[in-house]
Each structure stands twice: as C-alpha cells, then as structure tokens.
Specification:
heterodimer; A: 224 residues; Glutaredoxin; 5-stranded mixed beta sheet; two-stranded antiparallel ribbon; B: 293 residues; alpha/beta; D-Maltodextrin-Binding Protein, domain 2
Chain lengths: 224, 293
C-alpha cells in the first residue's frame, strides 16, 4: 500500500469523525478552510525548489549533536523531509514510510534527515514512537523552514482551534509565534543544488518515499 | 470634466483594481486618478466604486456603467481611426510577427483565407522565436505565447492550451515510460532554451513538485526541439500547439497526465504609443475566430 493510500484511508476515517479522534464536523471544516487559504496564498510556489541552491543548516539532533548539511553532503546526496511535529498523525505515517525506504536510500549513499520546529524531547518521542533510525533535527524558531520558504503563520481562527484541541504549538516548538513549515521533501545533490522538491500546502498529501530513488540514481551518476 | 477621459480612467481603475495601477497605466499621478473618478461620481450622482480592505470594486451602478463606458471608448477609438485612415480600408501592408513553429503550423495555413478576404492587403510575416522589439521593427501585430514581459503593450488573449511532457513511442520503448515526475531524472530531455530550461515544475492537486532533468541537448528554436524529439532523442515539455499534427497522428504521445504543467496563453499584442491600425485589429479579429474555429 502506498503512503498516500494510507494517508487517504486515515483521512477518510478522521474526517468521518470516527474514533479515536471523534472529531466534530466544524473542526474539520476549520482545518479545510485553513488548508484552502494556504494553497490559495501560493506560498508553496515561492518555496525553494529544484534548481535552487539549498540553504545550508546546522541543527541539533535529539541527543544534542550538531548535524550540518555540509557534513552530510560530503558523504552523498541528502534526502530532507520537513514535517510539522509528533502531534501530526500524517507526519508520523510519513516518517514510518521513510524509515521503511531507508535501506534503498542507503544503497545510493544518501543521508536521510527530518527537520521539525519541535523541541528535542518531542523529537525523541517521534524517533521512539516511529522506530526511526534517522535523526529528527530541531529547527529552532523555524529558521531553516523559513530559509526554504516553507514557514507560514497560522491564521487566528486556526490558533484558536489548536488551543481548544490543546495542541499548544508555542510549548511544543518553544516558539511563541504560532508558525509551522509546510511539509516538504527535498533531494539535494552533493554540489548543494536541489535536484527534486515537493511542497505540500495540503498536509494530508505527501510524496512516496520510492519516488526519491530515480533522483538518487541520478545523483549517484553525477557523483564526483 | 472630460467625460471620455473620466470614462477611461474609471475603466482602468476597475481593470487594475487600484487607483495606483490606473495611474501607472495612464502615466499620471494617483491623486489625478482619484479626483477624476470623484468628479465622475459627482457628475453622475452615484457611487461607482466601493472601497474595502480587499481593495476597490465597482458598485452595481459601476458595473452597469463599466460595460457601456467600454463600448463608448471603443466606438470613439474606431471613429478616430476612421477619420485618420480616411477610408483607407484594408490596404497597404500589415506587418505580423510570430514564433516560427507556431506560425508554420497555425498561422500560415490560415493566411490564404485572410488574404482572399482582403485582396488589397499585403503582408510581412516576421518569424522569430525570440521576442523582438515591436516598435523598433515596425510591427503592427504580434502573436506571442507565455507571460508578457512588456507592460507597455496592449494585449488580447486569443487562446490557452495545455503543456505536456511528450516523446515518441520509439523513445519510450527504449527508455521506458515515466510514471512519476521524479523518474524524469533518468530520462533524456530535449531542453528548449526559450522554455523552462532543465528544471521542470509540476502540480498535482495542490502539491508543487519540481525536478531537474538531464539536458544533454539544448535547443534555441522550437523547430529544433521538434526535430530532436521526432528523431527519438528524448522527451520534452511542449505546448499542444507545438506538436498538434503529431499528437493527432500518434507520432508523439503525452505522459505524466496526472500532473499538470502551467498552461500556455496565446496573445495578440499591439504596440501602444500609436493608434492600433484598423488592419491590425481586423487581423486579430480574423485570427481569433479562425484559430478557435
């Protein structure tokens, strides 16, 4: 079953108000409105994309080790996944699918890291719950997400909803700003240029991990 | 108050959605635009525009006035042209410019009809894939595709078409048929240098995807892209217009139909700064009808 098929099945149950979430229709409608407005804003079209030089970064993994994009690129291409946080079920399903595809990425000498604005304890929870062997880097105050053009401000009504749902992003992210990155996947070549990009302003849609393989094959062929 | 000038100002304000936009187009200051609209509203005794946080919008009365004002402006322009042309009719020479391949497939085949309808009109057809300077080259009307770079031109959209990733069956037999844009990484692309280059951007639903393709062959003219694709050298991104005969015959086929590429617009462009000639307008009317028939 493809990742998107799993996400679609989850979404159908979630939006039908089924347990364990039992979400009322009004909440779904508010979420739909926010997604529609984010799509309408065309923010996804302004994000970094293939052909652009990827912004470099140096971020901490959950254990406090500093991981830099420059170091990762020394050993091979880099698969980068921007995601929202451990509170987002779609993100967790994506992380699990990436973990399953990781042996394939390894074959092409590629590194895999996820970047989230959440704090280290939340990332540790993410790694533990999703049984991940790759690091989740903490993007403090969403600065790297910003550099990639992915960071957006939640509209007021969505902030209100998140507060009601006890989804306290300022605490999760140690950032008072109520911002999130749009989920996005990048493959970056060893020269630091983006070879593949996909930005999902609708957070219920994610690229298949297997779609990275042809790009990694290409990157391996380019290897200096 | 110059009623015609006020009408024009009002129409530009509605079309640009702002006083400042209209001021730029009319090359006057913004206060002059605001004043002109205010005078018009006072003269008519009704409000034509509402101002909200979302910008300017015409009122009910404004919408009714807008359509008739546009017609009045067109009539006035026609009257001026008729006076200036002094019964010239469609005589003399009309200089048309267009992209080479588009003209070969879509424009030249329609010319016999246009020339038969206008026996006293001679044509210069200037073919160039690049955007040439219309004023400097004395062009009366240009057919252009894509985004219009020069805001100083008057343009009318004639048609819109899809852009596709396409190649020959022989190429796909050899290299495989890509089922996702990411698979394009391992394909041979024929890159049109007037087009998107080697980064191809797609959309599926709301997701924005872009991938770098291998571009061993880059070509500056659409004719060359066509020839290279038809020689099975690789796949390319092209408008339906560029391969109309081959898409019909099956000599090329489109792939990745679940993903969409930005569409392509065809514009008839008239240089401003001098009155559009009756000939140019007649040609645009003819071409729009015949092309979309």
């Amino acid at each position: 079953m493809s990742l998107q098929a799993k996400l679609d099945a989850f979404k159908a149950d979630f939006e039908a108000g089924k347990p364990p979430y039992n979400v009322p229709r009004s909440v779904i409608e508010t979420m739909h409105r926010a997604t529609a407005e984010l799509i309408e804003s065309a923010a996804a079209q302004r994000a970094k994309k293939a052909g652009d030089v990827a912004p470099s970064f140096s971020l901490k993994d959950p254990e406090g080790n500093i991981i830099s994009s420059a170091d990762l690129l020394k050993s091979g291409p880099l698969v980068l996944s921007f995601y929202r946080g451990v509170w987002c079920p779609y993100c967790n399903m994506e992380l699990q699918a990436l973990e399953a595809a990781k042996p394939e990425f390894d074959r092409y000498g590629a590194s895999l890291v996820a970047i989230s604005p959440q704090t280290a304890p939340n990332s540790r929870k993410s790694v533990r719950q999703n049984k991940l062997s790759f690091p989740i880097l903490s993007d403090v105050k969403g600065k790297v997400g910003e550099a990639f053009g992915l960071r957006f401000n939640l509209p007021d009504y969505l902030v209100e909803l998140y507060k009601q749902l006890k989804n306290d992003l300022p605490t999760f992210n140690d950032d008072p700003s109520w911002t999130l990155p749009m989920p996005a996947r990048y493959v970056i070549g060893q020269d630091g240029v983006v070879l593949y990009s996909e930005v999902n302003p609708d957070y219920t849609r994610r690229p298949e991990p297997e779609d990275m393989i042809p790009v990694l094959q290409r990157a391996a062929a380019l290897k200096v | 108050m110059d009623r015609l000038a006020s009408m024009e100002t009002f129409v530009r304000v509605v079309e640009t959605g702002s006083f400042s936009g209209a001021a730029r187009q009319l090359r006057v200051g913004q206060p002059a635009v605001s004043k002109s609209v205010a005078q018009l509203e006072e003269y008519l005794g009704v409000k034509l525009l509402t101002r909200s946080t979302r910008g300017l919008a015409p009122t009910e009365a404004g919408i009714r006035y807008l359509e008739r004002a546009k017609r009045a402006l067109e009539e006035a322009a026609e009257a001026e042209l008729a006076a200036r042309g002094a019964g010239a009719g469609l005589k003399g020479r009309l200089r048309i410019c267009a992209a080479v391949t588009f003209a070969r497939i879509h424009l030249i085949p329609l010319l016999p009809q246009f020339m038969a309808q206008n026996p006293e009109l001679d044509l210069d057809v200037i073919l160039d894939d690049r955007q040439i300077d219309l004023v400097q080259e004395g062009i009366d009307v240009a057919l252009r595709m894509g985004k219009l770079m020069d805001s100083m031109l008057t343009a009318r959209r004639i048609a819109r078409c899809k852009r596709l990733v396409l190649g020959t069956p022989a190429y796909f037999d050899r290299a495989g048929t890509p089922s996702t844009p990411s698979e394009l990484s391992n394909h041979r692309a024929v890159v049109y240098l007037q087009g998107e280059g080697s980064v191809w951007s797609f959309r599926r639903q709301s997701s924005e995807l872009a991938v770098t393709v291998q571009s061993r062959l880059r070509v500056t003219a659409a004719e060359g892209v066509r020839a290279a694709v038809l020689a099975d050298l690789g796949l390319t991104i092209a408008s339906e217009w560029m391969f109309s005969p081959e898409l019909r015959s099956g000599a090329v086929r489109a792939v990745l139909s679940e993903w969409s590429l930005p569409s392509l617009d065809l514009w008839a462009v008239l240089p401003t700064g001098r009155a559009a000639t009756t000939k140019a307008r007649a040609f645009v009317d003819f071409f729009e009808r015949a092309f979309n028939a």
